[in-house]
Write a structure and sequence with these properties.
mainly alpha, 2 domains, transmembrane
Length: 74
């Protein structure tokens, strides 16, 4: 049970850091969520939003971070 608690605490810390980075990116003027290729369709009663390019950019950055961490861990 202690390992599960550590896992939850670690995930919570990771979410806290990710949220802080996203807030800083918004204040720095980075257009995350408004990149070319992100789809936003606005109708009279509904809005559909699909941040496709933003998800790809975040995926590439996270993959790079994981690769760097694994590279220096060995």
């Amino acid at each position: 049970m202690q390992d599960f608690g550590r896992l939850l605490a670690g995930l919570g810390l990771l979410l806290l850091v990710a949220g802080g980075l996203i807030m800083l990116a918004g204040r720095a003027g980075l257009p995350l969520g408004r990149l070319p290729g992100d789809i936003a369709i606005r109708g009279k009663n509904a809005t559909f939003y699909a941040p496709i390019v933003t998800c790809i950019v975040i995926s590439i950055l996270l993959s790079l971070v994981v690769w760097i961490v694994n590279h220096f861990r060995r």
